[in-house]
């Protein structure tokens, strides 16, 4: 009897293994297999194998454009990329990284909650592509080599490194009268460290792996959140079972606090370098950010519906904001 039971169990396991579907998940992480994004994807792989019978082979990329290009070319069935790169697939989820839209992590979490609901599923799809998860990757700050900079007007004439196809960052740079220096995720840090630019945009999670302390020197990090970087799992929907994307978004939301704790550890390292800005200057930043969001919405870079979701969240959390009395956004 025991032998029969063992044989039946072995047959069941063999059939299960044969039924498992093999897929490739390409993961952008500037730290390769040692970074938060890769480790989060590795955890996701284990859950998808158990829940869906999908065995992901993970491939690490330290250059994001290559990961995105491989996904588009069919070399990956899914990829972990930032919202900026997700824009290339016409996905509206990229709008969650809109400049100045989400000043805090509670606001980001609330937005991800809204977007993971079944009612928002249509917003997460574009043709054959679908956003199957959104994870926090850290607030984005402006790193400057000159610690005397506190106001946006002081950025006029400065050279600022920005990802070459990040329309939002380049538009914001132009708004403050600075010059955008097109870069890639692989070299923007090097340009800052070498002194070929005066400033760069980056989350705290990039500080250590890209050794940004070398470029920072006696400078600092402007203590004002410019945007929220996210890592998004983009899938070729027809390569996955019906309902997989919805499940993935819900699961990622359930892991928000766990992933954010890892991001927060990186932010603790930059705290001594933060440069406070005058409280009276903050409304001016908000106005500039809104002007840029509206410009990019009208240009088609940002999705109007998701911008409205984020505005509603801001006005629920901070009812006295000037924008709450207008219908500009």
Describe this structure in a few short sentences.
Helix content is 42%, strand content 22%. The chain has 12 helices and 10 strands.
List the helices and strands and how they pair.
Elements: H1 2-19, E1 21-28, H2 36-52, E2 54-61, H3 64-72, E3 78-82, H4 83-86, H5 105-116, E4 125-126, E5 129-144, E6 159-163, H6 167-175, E7 179-183, H7 188-194, E8 199-203, H8 213-216, E9 220-236, H9 244-254, H10 256-270, E10 274-275, H11 282-299, H12 304-317
Parallel strand pairs: 1-2, 1-3, 6-7, 6-8, 9-10
Antiparallel strand pairs: 3-9, 4-5, 5-8, 5-9
Helix pairs in contact: 5-9, 5-12, 6-11
What does this structure look like?
Strands 1, 2, 3, 4, 5, 6, 7, 8, 9 and 10 form a ten-stranded mixed sheet that branches. The chain is 42% helix and 22% strand. The protein is built from twelve helices and ten strands. It folds into two domains: 17-137 and 229-271, Bacterial extracellular solute-binding protein, family 7 (D-Maltodextrin-Binding Protein, domain 2), CATH 3.40.190.170; 140-227 and 274-325, D-Maltodextrin-Binding Protein, domain 2. The chain starts with a helix and ends in a 12-residue tail after the last helix. By secondary structure, the protein is of the alpha/beta class.
- Overall domain count: 2
Low-confidence stretches: 1-18
Could you tell me how far the N terminus lies from the C terminus, measured between alpha carbons in angstroms?
A: 70 Å
The multimeric state of the shown protein is: single chain
CATH architecture of the largest domain: 3-Layer(aba) Sandwich
Which H/E pattern describes the elements? HEHEHEHHEEEHEHEHEHHEHH
The computed structural class is: alpha/beta
- The amount of beta strand, in percent, is 15-25%
Looking at CATH, which topology of the largest domain would you report?
Answer: D-Maltodextrin-Binding Protein, domain 2
Radius of gyration: 21 Å
CATH class of the largest domain: Alpha Beta
Largest sheet: 10 strands, mixed
Helical content class = 40-55%
Estimate the mean pLDDT confidence: 90
Number of helices: 12
Count the beta strands: 10
Question: What's the CATH H-level homologous superfamily of the largest domain?
Answer: Bacterial extracellular solute-binding protein, family 7
Instruction: Describe the global form.
Output: globular
